[in-house]
User: Fold this.
Amino acid sequence: MNAKKKDDFAVDTGGVSALLTGLSGRFGPEVPGQPHPDGTTADRHDGTTAPEPAAAPKAPKPSKYTILFDQDDALVFDGLALELRRQVGRPVDKSEIVRALVHLAARPGPVADRLADVLDRRTAT
Assistant:
């Protein structure tokens, strides 16, 4: 008994083949040894592709340092980080603080002079 259920239906796919055949004329013939397109660059209408975008220069790998603080210096550094976060209104990483201090101390001026004074007193004891 081959009775059709009420939910059965038929789909006419004859138009799909005609559509696909019409589209195939837009693409050039395959050439032996032709690289398979990777999908990252679209063909233009004239068959050429857009030039590859220039790669952004890689940032140099940062140097890694370890700083050993005694307990008092660690508390001062933590307090400085908290105060700076309040002042600038955003999270401030401690490594960002150290980098900023290095750049400030490297410039001629009062910060570099004061740093030299502090270091001179510590080594004199």
Notes: The CA atoms of residues 116 and 122 lie 10 Å apart. The chain has four helices and no strands.
